[in-house]
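Long-time lurker, first post. I've been practising inverse folding by hand and with some scripts of my own, and I keep getting stuck on stretches where the structure tokens seem ambiguous. Below is the full token string for one chain I'm working on. Before anyone asks, I'm not after the true native sequence, just a reasonable design that respects the backbone. If someone could post their per-position residues I'd love to compare against what I wrote down in my notebook.
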């Protein structure tokens, strides 16, 4: 879809209940990177789409899911955290 204002295209892209993946295509990589960082999606590609790596987290935003798979961040979903407070005498 064509657009003229960055804020408008970011709003259109984020105006959805889903947020699994998105891609930004542009000859201006700096502008594409700036837009990509503002998208509400778990995976965002610049000038590519669906290139995956098992070393990179995979997850969604909004109704596309909570949490991530792969990497240390995905493993943390299967752990229980504990804080221990020990008062010294």
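-- Answer (accepted) --
I ran through it position by position. Result:
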């Amino acid at each position: 879809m064509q657009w003229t204002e960055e804020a408008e295209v970011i709003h259109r892209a984020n105006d959805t209940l889903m947020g699994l993946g998105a891609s930004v295509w542009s000859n201006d990589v700096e502008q594409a990177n700036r837009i990509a960082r503002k998208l509400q999606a778990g995976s965002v590609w610049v000038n590519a789409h669906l290139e995956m790596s098992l070393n990179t987290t995979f997850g969604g935003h909004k109704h596309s899911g909570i949490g991530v798979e792969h990497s240390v961040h995905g493993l943390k979903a299967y752990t229980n955290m504990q804080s221990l407070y020990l008062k010294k005498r």
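A couple of notes from the structure itself: The longest strand covers residues 21-24. The two ends are 66 Å apart (CA to CA). Happy to go over any region you disagree with.
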